[in-house]
Amino acid sequence: MRNHMHASRFLTDHRIRWQSWLAAVMLAGLALAGCQTAPREGRLSPAQLAVLQQEGFTLTGEGWELGLTDKVLFGFNEDLIEGDRAANVLRIGRALSGVGIERLRVDGHTDDAGSAEYNQSLSVRRAEAVARLLADAGFTRDNIEVRGLGKSRPVADNRTAAGRAENRRVAIIVSVD
């Protein structure tokens, strides 16, 4: 009987240790799994933030914005992107889609030369040109919002040639909402 009690106590102690160990492993597994889940809606992961910062995006009131003034400038009355400028947009698009960023907004802009209607149309064509390249880089076209803002949001003085050149641009925005 004494051996039976000793064996019973041994099994009970062993079972408690086993349950404690199993609970600890499960908690650790849940904690690790939490680190690997996709970010909640509207949140960017540390990897996504790192790529945005590496590519030159800055946080604005609109979201993470890359003003393509230094990356993609358009000539006067131009809406085509070719050569190095196209390769740059493709590289940025692949970097963003590579870290799971799925939705973008592309805002086209113009300088103030010409009518408001013409500049509106031109800004849409510029944004569409960038959106096509982003789709080629792996984004679903339905996940790219395109806006033409015409001459409504200059970033530089339109009274100078250099300022007008800076205003002929496209911005790529990653929303944080």
Automatic annotation (TrEMBL):
<protein>
    <submittedName>
        <fullName>Outer membrane protein, ompA family</fullName>
    </submittedName>
</protein>
<dbReference type="GO" id="GO:0009279">
    <property type="term" value="C:cell outer membrane"/>
</dbReference>
<dbReference type="InterPro" id="IPR006665">
    <property type="entry name" value="OmpA-like"/>
</dbReference>
<dbReference type="InterPro" id="IPR036737">
    <property type="entry name" value="OmpA-like_sf"/>
</dbReference>
<dbReference type="Pfam" id="PF00691">
    <property type="entry name" value="OmpA"/>
</dbReference>
<feature type="domain" description="OmpA-like">
    <location>
        <begin position="62"/>
        <end position="177"/>
    </location>
</feature>
<dbReference type="InterPro" id="IPR006664">
    <property type="entry name" value="OMP_bac"/>
</dbReference>
<dbReference type="InterPro" id="IPR050330">
    <property type="entry name" value="Bact_OuterMem_StrucFunc"/>
</dbReference>
<keyword id="KW-0472">Membrane</keyword>
